[in-house]
Design a protein that fits this description.
By secondary structure, the chain is an alpha/beta fold. Strands 4-12-11-10-7-5-6 form a 7-stranded mixed sheet, with helices on both faces. A 4-stranded mixed sheet has the order 1-2-3-14, covered by helices on one side. The chain has a 3-stranded antiparallel sheet with strand order 13-16-15. A hairpin with a 5-residue loop joins strand 2 and strand 3. The longest helix has 19 residues. The model has no long low-confidence stretch (mean pLDDT 97). It binds pyridoxal-5'-phosphate.
């Protein structure tokens, strides 16, 4: 029998579209120096300027002059690529400098960089699990796909605790054999909810049940703590977390991932993690940019302060206008629409009529009935940008009777 392979993929795409889950990317042209404004290109090839309201470049570091200069200089000095994997000719002096800076950031013995935060989670978690003796992993229900991937490829026994639910986590820990090896894997800032984990209490449970702690601080590094170390640093808990994972892709404004921990844990990840070993190393420009960004945010408070002030200003303005945002302690502000079609319609109108770009967040990323816009007021947004956004939202929520729909 003849297989029509192309047809199979077409059918899957057709189904995805029918279910309303087909993703359409907005094509942007970022403009150096003009963030959070950028050009948007529509399907007809016309372009217009929009304000971005869903970027993870929380501090505008993607356009920081010292970061850009460091990247230009690195290309001039070292060339374009790394030239190999870390093991075979790809390790640059810049890797060593950056990893030393990251270990210092988290007051840990050691650090290791990956080509993304995603591969850092996959590589670190799967390696830890594989080297332990049949461990049980306790994973928050809202953990990121990359952590789930890492836990799955480590083939661990997995217990999922309800999001940020200490009682449930403890019940699951209690059920496990007392002498079993255990890892609790969780995030600090949850980016779809905008809330923050009870890190201290989770560490207390980890102590009580003798578990390792693995904390994803991807949405917090650069943004929280006295030198950008994240929530654990801000709360004075760095020494209570065994492994901290982060990215250069969000507040640091670039790309690439890392984990920090003890010398032995990091050396084990370096020695056994496939997703670290068998891939080309980060190139000089990225390394130099990341180092400049991390070092800049260790000493500079202004970006962090401005971002948090802007997030507060946004939340207060939403509150005043009775717009239903999720109250969390982080800088991320999810605004509930509660219906997939309406969420898409509202974001389309924002883009077409208000020159505001925010991506709708629908099922399966969030549960049905909780469709939302995930708003990020970055350090680069002005009060005027925020006022415009809130007045557009207020109009649209009234026009589309969104609160009434949610109540009914
Ligand atoms: C974005 C994200 C990652 C992946 O980081 P990248 O550097 O973008 O690959 C990991 N964990 C969480 C919670 C994230 O939101």
């Amino acid at each position: 029998m003849m297989h029509n392979y192309n047809k199979i993929f077409e059918q899957h795409l057709h189904d995805l579209k029918q279910e309303g889950h087909y993703r359409v990317f907005a094509t942007l042209e970022r403009q150096s120096g003009n963030f959070p404004h950028a050009y948007y290109h529509d399907e007809n090839g016309t372009r217009k300027q929009v304000t971005i309201w869903c970027s993870n470049d929380y501090l505008g570091m993607g356009q920081n002059k010292s970061v850009q200069q460091a990247m230009h200089d690195a290309i001039d000095q070292y060339g374009a690529g790394a030239g190999g994997t870390r093991n075979i000719s790809g390790t640059q002096k810049l890797h060593c400098d950056l990893e030393a800076s990251l270990a210092d950031l988290h007051s840990k013995e050691s650090a290791i960089t990956f080509t993304s935060g995603y591969t850092a989670n996959v590589g670190a978690l799967s390696t830890l699990i594989n080297l332990l003796d049949n461990p049980i992993v306790f994973s928050d229900a809202l953990n990121h796909a990359s952590m789930i991937h890492g836990i799955r490829s480590g083939n661990a026994q997995k217990r999922i605790f309800n999001h940020n639910d200490l009682a449930h986590l403890e019940a699951l820990l209690k059920e496990a054999p007392i002498d079993a090896q255990k890892i609790i894997a969780f995030e600090s800032v949850y980016s779809m909810e905008g809330d923050i984990a009870p890190i201290k209490e989770i560490c207390d449970l980890a102590d009580k049940y003798n578990a390792m702690t693995y904390l994803d601080e991807v949405h917090a590094v650069g943004l929280y703590g006295s030198n950008g170390g994240g929530i654990a640093q801000m709360r004075g808990l760095l020494d209570r977390i065994d492994i901290i994972e982060g990215t250069f892709g969000k507040a640091y404004g670039l790309m690439g991932g890392f984990v920090t921990g003890t010398q032995a844990m990091i050396d084990a990840i370096r020695s056994f993690s496939s997703s670290f070993i068998f891939t080309t190393a980060l190139p000089p420009a990225i390394l130099a940019g990341a180092l400049a960004s991390v070092e800049h945010l260790k000493v500079s408070e202004i970006e962090r302060k401005t971002a948090h002030i802007n997030a507060r200003y946004l939340k207060d303005a939403l509150e005043e206008n009775d717009l239903p945002y999720l109250q969390g302690d982080s800088h991320i502000v999810p605004l509930i629409v509660g219906d997939a079609v309406c969420c898409k319609a509202v974001t389309d109108i924002l883009l077409n009529d208000y020159d505001i770009y925010v991506q709708p967040i629908n099922y399966p990323t969030v549960p049905k009935g909780t469709e939302r816009m995930r708003l990020t007021a970055t350090a680069a947004h002005t009060k005027d940008d925020i006022d415009k956004m809130v007045s557009a939202l207020t109009e649209l929520y009234q026009e589309h009777r969104i609160l009434e729909r949610m109540a009914g």
